[in-house]
Amino acid sequence: VPSGTAMGLPAAVRDRVAAVHRGSALPERLRLYDGWAALYEQDVAALEYRAPYLAAASLAFAFPAPRAEARLLDVACGTGLVARELHRRGFRCLDGVDGSAGMLERARSTGLYQELRLCVLGREPLPAPAEHYDAVTVVGALGEGQVPSTVLPELLRVTKPGGFLCLTTRSNPSNLRYKAELEAALGQLEQRGAWQKLLAQEVEYWERATSEEESTQGTGYISGVVYIYQKCPVPNLEEG
């Protein structure tokens, strides 16, 4: 391995990825994302980041036809990588939210979204009425130092009864505590009858690791997981 490239990744890519995952305070992290926007897509290509593809494929598999009219919300949409994959699978009515203005600017230039709004998830509610979307995706943002697992009820709020939620998280060592918290929260909502789990798919080659410590058994990759939930169609009468 040439010096300065762990796991065959350029050092600059590694540093940028590490910076946003370092769990810095929110304003600083959003500033990092703004600054990363221009290089984001080339960096995730270098990482062989498969989450947008895997999430869109999983949602399309679960989703009943037709798709063209279905309203989707892409949460933490970034530059529009997930939108591109959803669009390829026949989804046309996409809205997006992200905490980074720089990322939203890139997403806007794709022309794939009907509406894009700035929203810092975990700090403020989603800019959408209740039961508005047929599906909600959160790909890549549910992780240590990013979006807290406490946002799940807010994601449910904007989803129609019978609608779908597609979530992803990473299974690398530094995210395992977060993943356990997330799965506990997912399970609690299922026990309360808020939604039903349709899929929890562990994927070995999620993206390239940025360090040896994070790599799964020396493969040079980290693993991740795609979850698909369906919001229960019947309102929960025990509430209140």
UniProtKB/TrEMBL annotation:
Classification via Pfam families: Methyltransf_25 (PF13649)
Domain (Methyltransferase): residue spans on this chain: 73-163
Gene Ontology terms, MF aspect: S-adenosylmethionine-dependent methyltransferase activity
Annotated InterPro entries: Methyltransf_25 (IPR041698), SAM-dependent_MTases_sf (IPR029063)
Protein name per UniProt: MET27 protein
Signal peptide coordinates: none
Coiled-coil positions: none
Origin species: Molothrus ater (Brown-headed cowbird)
